[in-house]
Amino acid sequence: MDENLKYYLENTVVSKSAIESRLTHPITKLRYPTRLVYVLLKKYANDFLKSGSEPRFVSLAGLRGVGKTTLLWQTANYIYLNHHKDIYFFNVNTLKNLGIDLHIALEEFQRHIIKKRFNELSEPITLLFDEVHDDDNWSKTLKILYDEARTAFILCTGSSALLLNQTADLARRMRIEKIYPFKFIEFVAAKTYMENNGGMVYPERGLSNGLKEALFYSETPEEAFRKIKVYENNVNIYFNKINSIKGLQLKDLWQGYISYQNIPNFLFFKDKYTINDSILDLFKRVILEDIPKLKPTFADFTKIERLILRLAGSDEINPEKLAGVIGVKQNDINELIDILAKAELLNVLLPFGGLDTKIVKNKKAFFMSPSLRRALLSNLYGQNLPDQFRSKLIEDIIVMYLRRVLADGVISFLSGNDEVNPDFVIETRDKPILLEIGTSKTSLRQLTKSNVKYRYGILISNGVTEPTLKGDCIQIPFSWFLLL
């Protein structure tokens, strides 16, 4: 066996000290805070390791920097403390750099480390794979692994949902959990953990789901408003808890959250210029490392960079206009937009209407994180963005929230130049909800004057301080929306 592979395989064994080093900040010695999805990952591990329930093959997919690898190690720690210690970690990127195929590595792992074939195992084992898509044949290899290692709990990470769902056979076996940037309440929990000697501040359990049900699934505006008001005391208690911690103020927190620290990887960064530079580096890594896997035939990365920069300052996607500006074919624009969405950089929405409208009309692109847009625009405008771009950051965060709490296809936008069109349409129940965003506005004109027959309207704005019902429209403070 190759000496490099031998050394690599010997180091796949996960020890308590290895887990500790991965979960603890090297300077502050604080444990990295857990995400809300960690509760679900613990459940998957418990269900399989206690009763054999599926899923036993879970993949974490999402934008670079959202904390997938940390979640993998946190889950490993939970298994180590509560179930078994037969845990093994494979960094697939390291294997690639060594020029070793994952399949060969797993063959030698069975021969020299566990000294059994996977199908001969009778006791549980946990196998962790980081950056699994770096192996060219990962899907075939992990399909075989899943079928043979029936006592194994398998957890892996990847940067692209497309890479983690490219074969029908594997999709049936694998549960994909999409990891988004921080929710605001996760960000606050992490910040209070760091500032409050390890004490994490959360709102009362059930608040997020209760607000979601009230806002998007009520039958009438009166019903929605009544349900929302039920949570007013809980919301105020939560906000007061935050403001009571020395050095933390709610307004400063959500401004920092939107602009810089909604991506967990930047939680321990103090300097906003360093965050911007790190985000620009993140773009380069996605463009140079991830996109070639998604579209191997496209090699002109400068055109992708120009397209992304153009999207940072734009609204609707006009393929014809963008093709002329970027210097590619119109069909390439549509394909590149789709790839940027698959690479987790963009959330792309279709226009409201029937199938013909969705095919013919232009789409809209929002960034997966507003920090991505801010970093790009800071190259042109510095740190103090013009008002129209600050409002775009708010739209990015709201679309990210909508995408994570609502099913695909439910969210769309109203196309056209009509000034009275609201920003978004939420198609739940028999008639849709119209949603308007304003940094400080209180006017409901864009909701009430729309030609769309709607159930009720929602205005999300910093211009209101508490939920208010006006006619068939509900005004919600932006700080409340962030609690979803």
Unreliable runs, pLDDT <50, ≥5 residues?
Answer: none
Q: Categorize the overall geometry.
A: globular
Largest sheet: 6 strands, mixed
Strand order of the biggest β-sheet: 8-9-10-11-13-12
Note the total helix count: 22
Please indicate the percent range of residues in DSSP E strands (runs of 2 or more). 5-15%
Gyration radius, rounded: 24 Å
Number of strands: 13
Mean pLDDT: 90
Percent helix range: 40-55%
- End-to-end C-alpha gap: 53 Å
What structural category arises from helix and sheet content? alpha/beta
Blueprint of the fold:
Blueprint: H1 3-10, H2 16-23, H3 37-51, E1 57-61, H4 68-82, E2 87-91, H5 92-97, H6 102-112, E3 125-130, H7 138-148, E4 152-158, H8 168-173, E5 175-178, H9 184-195, H10 207-217, H11 221-229, H12 232-243, H13 250-261, H14 272-294, H15 301-312, H16 319-326, H17 330-342, E6 346-349, H18 355-360, E7 364-367, H19 370-381, H20 387-405, E8 411-412, E9 424-426, E10 433-438, H21 445-448, E11 456-461, E12 468-470, E13 473-477, H22 478-481
Parallel strand pairs: 1-4, 1-5, 2-3, 3-4, 10-11, 11-13
Antiparallel strand pairs: 6-7, 8-9, 9-10, 12-13
Helix pairs in contact: 2-4, 3-4, 10-11, 14-19, 16-17, 19-20
